[in-house]
Amino acid sequence: EVDLEERLCELDLRSDSDIPEVPPPTDSTPEILKRALSGLSARWKNWWIRGIVSLAMISGFFLIIYLGSFMLMLLVLSIQVKCYHEIITIGYRVYHSYDLPWFRSLSWYFLLCVNYFFYGETVADYFATFVQRREQLQFLIRYHRFISFVLYLTGFCMFVLSLVKKHYRLQFYMFAWTHVTLLITVTQSHLVIQNLFEGMIWFLVPISSVICNDITAYIFGFFFGRTPLIKLSPKKTWEGFIGGFFSTVVFGFIFSYFLAHHQYFVCPVEYNSETNRFVTECEPPELFQMKKYSVPPLLQAVLGWETVNMYPFQMHSFALSTFASLIGPFGGFFASGFKRAFKIKDFADTIPGHGGIMDRFDCQYLMATFVHVYITSFIRGPNPSKLLKQLLILQPEQQLSVYKTLKSHLIEKGILQPSLRG
């Protein structure tokens, strides 16, 4: 027994050098682009590839925005699945030689379970009227959490049955790997969609701020970078970090001003059960109505203005942009540390010049959590329309009970007269 304990301790003290190396990703750059840039140095070739592909992705993103909120949700779901695939594939490649049973199948099964739970919660929350009209969906929604638990429990039992002697510790590593990956990808993408339902502006400004910071930090670092920022990412510089910060704050302030003009971007995304479509029509909230603000005395001497007209949301955009440029990059540093731990350059080779999807969205997931917390802490208030949808689901006697309670409360407040008949 003593020898067994000592042997297990030795196994637990394995160094990083014992981790099998992951094969480097192949170059996915199109041949036509390679030939066009063949005369350039590697540094400038990478610059042009990243620039051209970035413009293509931004153009595609604008097209999806034009197609509407439903297409944006599909985009978020697609990115989530691809990011999950890239991380899980790294685990599979690293430990493939052990030939673990059911690892890949169980990983995708757990992805389906967790998505079923989160998106089922969204359906019950935002599509209550639609669900109420379909009996088959009412059963699924009523017992949604129980069904989700049973599905997860099935996967849990399958994992236990798949345990193989001599590989117990490794299999539990992979079990933890899968769950941490689910936490990073599925939970965060669910928060992105929650932010989208608050209004497309809460989706576009944070995401665009991260993209702006990524691009401008790269540009400032490429041309002016001299001072290394962090050892995890040797190419990151203080010049790029500071330049990216100021550029992102200015961009967020201006971009918010243009978006706040349009109902399409500021109104909450709601589902219209009569037309079976998502709608973004409303009276713009106070947050998106122009107001006059007094300029601080110190700035009055510089700008020559005593007052300025702006949207209240532009003040919030400053907080979002600041987080995107100061804290958001730490998501990228975390990803860099992860890649260094497994001796890989990129998560995949999906995007020429950029690496994998996860390489481009490592900061976005951290941003999504911040925006959700920010909205719930400082912005969101009681939502009458959402509450009304929940009341309509209740049984008639329950609705009557709510009505009587609300009527008594309004009479006590003096808002209704006691003689009022309802």
Automatic annotation (TrEMBL):
Catalytic reaction annotation: a 1,2-diacyl-sn-glycero-3-phosphate + CTP + H(+) = a CDP-1,2-diacyl-sn-glycerol + diphosphate; 1-hexadecanoyl-2-(5Z,8Z,11Z,14Z-eicosatetraenoyl)-sn-glycero-3-phosphate + CTP + H(+) = 1-hexadecanoyl-2-(5Z,8Z,11Z,14Z-eicosatetraenoyl)-sn-glycero-3-cytidine-5'-diphosphate + diphosphate; 1,2-di-(9Z-octadecenoyl)-sn-glycero-3-phosphate + CTP + H(+) = 1,2-di-(9Z-octadecenoyl)-sn-glycero-3-cytidine-5'-diphosphate + diphosphate; 1-octadecanoyl-2-(4Z,7Z,10Z,13Z,16Z,19Z-docosahexaenoyl)-sn-glycero-3-phosphate + CTP + H(+) = 1-octadecanoyl-2-(4Z,7Z,10Z,13Z,16Z,19Z-docosahexaenoyl)-sn-glycero-3-cytidine-5'-diphosphate + diphosphate
What are the recorded Gene Ontology BP terms? CDP-diacylglycerol biosynthetic process
InterPro entries, per this entry?
Answer: PC_trans, PC_Trfase_euk
**Per its UniProt entry, what is the enzyme's top EC class, as one word?**
transferase
What topology does it adopt in the membrane?
Multi-pass membrane protein
Where are its TM segments located?
A: 47-79, 100-119, 139-161, 173-193, 199-225, 237-260, 313-335
Q: Where in the cell is it found?
A: Membrane
Which organism is this entry from? Answer: Orthonyx spaldingii (Chowchilla)
- Family named by the database record: Belongs to the CDS family.
Gene Ontology cellular-component terms listed: endoplasmic reticulum membrane
In alphabetical order, the GO MF annotations are: phosphatidate cytidylyltransferase activity
Pathway per its UniProt entry is: Phospholipid metabolism; CDP-diacylglycerol biosynthesis; CDP-diacylglycerol from sn-glycerol 3-phosphate: step 3/3; Lipid metabolism
Recorded protein name is Phosphatidate cytidylyltransferase
Keywords on record: Lipid biosynthesis, Lipid metabolism, Membrane, Nucleotidyltransferase, Phospholipid biosynthesis, Phospholipid metabolism, Transferase, Transmembrane, Transmembrane helix
Q: What is its EC number?
A: 2.7.7.41
Q: What is its main location?
A: membrane
